[in-house]
Specification:
The chain is an alpha+beta fold and 149 residues long. It has helices spanning 2-13, 22-29, 32-36; strands at residues 41-51, 57-66, 71-78, 86-94, 99-106, 109-111, 115-116, 122-129, 136-145. The protein is 17% helix and 46% strand. The strands form 2 sheets. Strands 1, 2, 3, 6 and 7 form a 5-stranded antiparallel β-sheet that branches. Strands 5-4-8-9 form a 4-stranded antiparallel β-sheet, with no helix packed on it. It is globular and about 40 Å long. The N and C termini lie far apart (50 Å).
Length: 149
């Protein structure tokens, strides 16, 4: 109990609150499950960091799948420059099926929409740039995978 009281006092002195910040709340509101919608779940081997050439992480890209509908979805979620409009994109391709891409100046994320792909291989990508459009961070899988529906 004493440790918790000391921690709370230290946070108050530093001007920090022990409650979740609005930045945390905004991050929690933009999960791949919420972006893709009801019934979508993260796929094994369906997560990549969006990294710059120098290795800085600007966000994460997620491949999502809905077992009931047999549809795939990709969400590219920014962690750098959140709340600031910058080019952000998401890409999904189903082998022998459709392609979907969404790239605009977004504040938080890009999402491909839903593509049928039950028992079909897919590849996916996500990217974002700094607000000055100078540095790009990319992540995804260029090879076909997740073929077992």
């Amino acid at each position: 109990m004493l440790a918790r009281t000391v921690l709370a006092a230290a946070l108050a002195t530093a001007g920090l609150a022990a409650l979740p910040s609005s930045a945390y709340a905004a991050t929690a509101a933009h999960t791949p499950e919420r972006i893709c919608g009801s019934g979508f779940h993260r796929v094994d081997d369906g997560h990549r960091a969006m990294k710059t050439r120098g290795g800085a992480v600007f966000g994460h890209v997620y491949l999502m799948y809905n077992k009931r509908s047999g549809q795939n979805c990709v969400a590219a979620i920014k962690t750098a420059f959140r709340g600031v409009r910058s080019v952000t994109g998401a890409y999904l391709e189903v082998r022998g099926g459709g392609k979907s891409e969404d790239a605009q100046k977004y504040r938080y994320y890009a999402e491909t929409g839903h593509l049928a792909g039950s028992w079909k291989c897919v590849r996916y990508a996500g990217w974002t740039r700094d607000p000055d459009n100078r540095v790009e961070a990319w992540g995804g899988r260029q090879s076909w995978g997740n073929c077992k529906g």
